[in-house]
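Sync notes, pocket subgroup
Present: LS, DG
LS reminded everyone that the earlier model was apo-only. Rerun requested with calcium ion included. Inputs:
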Amino acid sequence: MRGRLLVVEDEPSIRELLCASLRFAGFAVSSAATGSEALEAARSGAPDLVLLDVMLPDRDGFEVVRRLRSSGVRVPVLYLTARDGADDRVTGLTIGGDGYITKPFSLEEVIARVTAVLRRTRPGESEQLTCGDLSLDVESHVVRRGARVIELSPTEFRLLHCLLRNSGRVLSKAQILDQVWSHDFDGDVGVVESYISYLRRKVDASEPRLIHTVRGIGYMIRP
Ligand code: CA
């Protein structure tokens, strides 16, 4: 488990998209739709990080953080906002936020920012993903099979990262498409099949093969 997240967002479609994507990326996720629910959930659920929409129906995100801090809750906070004014930034950071993610965001960006904050606030978490003698260093982007360094394109790297985060679990082509390509990409799952074959040529050039096809479903990486 990569950490416990609380997603606070009143817009159901954004909230559900964030929750599903972050769960899929390996986080334990709970959610709240209002500032009051957020306060309750942050106090009782002890999340490692809160993704907090600034514009909420009852009270704004800054007020939520002010209340949390005044009751001694020090959880890291990343604000989600469509507003991008300098004043908001200063206000938010002054009252204890750890940064801003401006809407519209990409899921890749959200996952990268969440991971970066958790790495800082939960030291000692592994930054290397491995499967057999294959390793992927999240920070330096170096991929190795044994001692051999494997050169990957950015898309191949994201695809391998996605498989390794879910090592031992079968991923459907649609799940992979959602995670690796941006959610507004309107291609079909054929692109997943193509990139799996590119990746196999590089990663599975030596035995044992690590990337497995699960007929009728999708793919899985395992030793
Ligand atoms: Ca909102």
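DG: Residues 10-11, 53, 55-56 surround calcium ion (CB under 6 Å).
LS: The domain at 4-121 is CATH 3.40.50.2300 (Rossmann fold).
Action: DG to write up.
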